[in-house]
Amino acid sequence: MLKYTRQSDPELYELVLEDLKRQENTIEMIASESTVPLEVMELSGSVLTNKTLEGLPHKRFQAGSGVVDKIEELGWQRAKELFGAEHVNLQSYSGSTANYSVFAAVLEPGDKILSMRLDQGGHLTHGSPANWVSKIYHHDFYGVDPETEQIDYDALEAKAKEVMPKLIIAGASAYPRLIDYERMAKIAEEVGAYFMVDMAHIAGLVAAKVIPSPIPYADFVTSSTTKTFCSARAGMVFCKE
Ligand SMILES: Cc1ncc(COP(=O)(O)O)c(C=O)c1O
Fold this sequence. Notes:
The chain is of the alpha/beta class and 241 residues long. 36% of the residues lie in helices and 16% in strands. The chain is built from eight helices and nine strands. The longest helix has 18 residues, at 66-83. The structure holds pyridoxal-5'-phosphate.
C-alpha cells in the first residue's frame, strides 16, 4: 500500500497506516461514514487527479477535456438511470455544496427557507447558526411530534402557511423514519415554495429501491455520494429537465 509515499514521506505513510489499523479494528457507528469498494479507492487515486476542469462537458474552459467529458456524461447517464431522474449535476464536491448550489440557483439573499430543526434531525446546511448559510437566508424550522417522534406534518403545514417560505427542505441527518414526500410536496405547492429533498443519508437505500424515492415529488433532490451510497467524496443534484 502507498509504495511511493512510503519512500518519499515515511511520516505521512505511518499516519495513514495508523488509520488503516484503526479502521480494521473498530466499528465506527457514524451514519455519514462507509467503507468504500476498492474500485472507489483505485479511481480516487487515478490519473484523473491531474485534470483541472471548469464548465460542463463540451463547454470547458480547459483544453484536453475530451475524455473526462465522456466520463462525466457516463456519470449523468448512470445516475439518471439509477434514480429515474430527468436531470443531474455531478459537480458538487460534497452533499453540503450540492445544497448550496440549489440555494444559489433559486434563492436571493433574505429569502425564507423552512427546514427541519437541527436538534430534531436536520442538518447544519439547512439553516443552523453554525453554518454560514444562516447569515444569507431567513430560516424557520419544523420538528417532530414529541409523542410519536415523527414529523408533525400538520404543524409543518401551519408553519409553511404562516411564513410562506420560498424553499421547503425535507431530509435529515438523524431521522430513521420514512418521510411523506407527497404530503410535503403538496404543502410546498400550496404555499408556492420550491420543494427540495436532501437524501444524503439514504441515497444508497433509494438507489437499491428498498425505500421510496423522493425524485418524483421534489423540484430538487440533493445528496452526498458517500454515506449509504458508498462512493467517493462528492455530491449530486437532481432536478427536472
Ligand atoms: C442530511 C445531510 N445533508 C448533507 C450532509 C453533508 O454532506 P457532505 O459531508 O457530503 O458535505 C450531511 C452530512 O452528514 C447530512 O447529514
